[in-house]
């Protein structure tokens, strides 16, 4: 039995803790805030899982493994926090994200359906699309109810023997020797130290990660026009509209309809810029990108902005860096939630010798 110390109680840290406990190890989780922490990237009513990944074949393939890992988690929790609404990428121009996703599906033989413009509008009667638009639907995809997942997962790991130290900020780490130092100066040492600190990593390991780009992204919850409430609820999640600019998550299990616009992000750090938002200005920026395609565009009432932060460099590939006994997970982008349980299992598998750290790192990078 080894001791696995984890910094961060987001989906990555909690998933590592669960995988560690299932394999008979000791798990200690240090979290700077409450557990779960509403400021973590892993905390929102929903996050999307979808196969559409443009031309990134490695990540498209990984989604099947991710679904299997979620199924194992649902078995452990005795409940599922996922609604299979399917997901659609909508093409507005040649060679955009939807077309790239379609080519990837064809290349790897992934089950899908292509709909012409009328077909997409039948599935999504709240949309009116331009001439030549079309869509590619993957039958499996939709909302993972993120805040319920991290809440239940945190309880599961405690029930199965993990030690979770909430409100315990790690102020220094010695990854080579697997040591984390708490604010009161006490330390804890692991055979493996997993650093899953999300957007706070550059502040924790400034020498190595201080220059990493951290982005703030706002997502907009909206109340759609009454006549489209049901159609939004029943439609698939939109994984992309045009060149990966917009996405939507349907209002299932009371989570609300949420709209995201990838271009609505800016460089910012959580510890400096905080979590405030301007509902009017941000909702205008996010919904503005969609309004040309919405029926009754002025009938959408923004209700709140959910603010989150993530590390993202231009490679847009997850990074798993081994530093002696330390393992740093970073560059999670707006993408890691769906892979969290799978990555947790792989990290513990790597620690036990199932694969090398270099292979794990290549896999995480989608190669
Ligand atoms: C707006 C937005 C939309 C997204 N949409 C999707 C999506 O649709 N699908 C998808 O798959 N992914 C999505 N993502 C990405 C996904 O949510 C993240 O990649 C994932 O949640 C990262 O998990 P994590 O555990 O690495 O980090 P986090 O969830 O951020 O957890 C890190 C934890 O570490 C703690 N911590 C940090 N520093 C310290 C310290 N020094 N000491 C102790 N604790 C510390 C933090 O408090 C935090 O709780 C989105 C992200 C955002 C922000």
UniProtKB/TrEMBL annotation:
InterPro entries: FAD-dep_OxRdtase, FAD/NAD-bd_sf, MTOX. SUPFAM superfamilies: FAD/NAD(P)-binding domain. Its EC number is 1.-.-.-. It is an enzyme of class 1 (oxidoreductase). It comes from the Bacteria. GO terms for molecular function: oxidoreductase activity. Keywords: FAD, Flavoprotein, Oxidoreductase. Its cofactor is FAD. Residues 3-347 form the FAD dependent oxidoreductase domain. PANTHER family: PEROXISOMAL SARCOSINE OXIDASE. This is NAD(P)/FAD-dependent oxidoreductase. It comes from Microvirga arabica. The lineage of its organism: Bacteria, Pseudomonadati, Pseudomonadota, Alphaproteobacteria, Hyphomicrobiales.
């Amino acid at each position: 039995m080894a001791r696995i110390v984890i910094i961060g109680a987001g989906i990555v840290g909690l998933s590592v803790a669960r995988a560690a406990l299932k394999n008979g190890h000791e798990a200690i989780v240090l979290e700077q805030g409450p557990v779960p922490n509403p400021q973590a990237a892993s905390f929102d009513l929903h996050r999307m899982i979808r196969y559409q990944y443009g031309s990134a074949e490695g990540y498209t393939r990984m989604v099947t493994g991710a679904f299997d890992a979620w199924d194992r988690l649902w078995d452990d929790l005795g409940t599922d926090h996922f609604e299979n609404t399917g997901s659609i990428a909508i093409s507005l121009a040649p060679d955009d994200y939807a077309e790239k996703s379609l080519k990837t599906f064809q290349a790897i033989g992934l089950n899908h359906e292509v709909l012409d413009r009328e077909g997409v509008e039948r599935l999504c009667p709240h949309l009116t699309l331009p001439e030549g638009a079309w869509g590619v639907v993957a039958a499996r995809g939709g909302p993972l109810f993120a805040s319920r997942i991290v809440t239940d997962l945190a309880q599961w790991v405690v029930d199965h023997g993990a030690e979770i130290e909430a409100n315990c900020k790690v102020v220094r780490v010695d990854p080579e020797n697997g040591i984390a130092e708490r604010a009161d100066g006490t330390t804890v040492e692991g055979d493996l130290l997993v650093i899953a600190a999300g957007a706070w990593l550059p502040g924790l390991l400034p020498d190595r990660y201080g220059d990493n780009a951290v982005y703030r992204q706002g997502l907009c919850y909206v109340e759609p026009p009454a006549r489209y409430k049901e159609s939004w609820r029943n439609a698939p999640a939109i994984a992309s509209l045009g060149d990966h600019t917009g996405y939507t998550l349907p209002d299932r299990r009371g989570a609300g309809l949420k709209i995201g616009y990838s271009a609505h992000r800016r460089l910012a750090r959580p510890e400096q810029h905080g979590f405030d938002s301007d509902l009017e200005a941000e909702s205008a920026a996010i919904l503005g990108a969609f309004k040309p395609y919405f029926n009754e565009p002025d009938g959408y009432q923004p209700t709140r902005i959910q603010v989150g932060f993530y590390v993202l460099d231009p490679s847009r590939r997850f990074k798993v860096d081994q530093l002696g006994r330390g393992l740093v997970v970073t560059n999670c982008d707006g993408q890691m939630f769906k892979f969290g349980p799978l990555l947790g299992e792989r990290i513990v598998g790597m620690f036990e010798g199932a694969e090398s750290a270099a292979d794990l790192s290549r896999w995480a990078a989608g190669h």
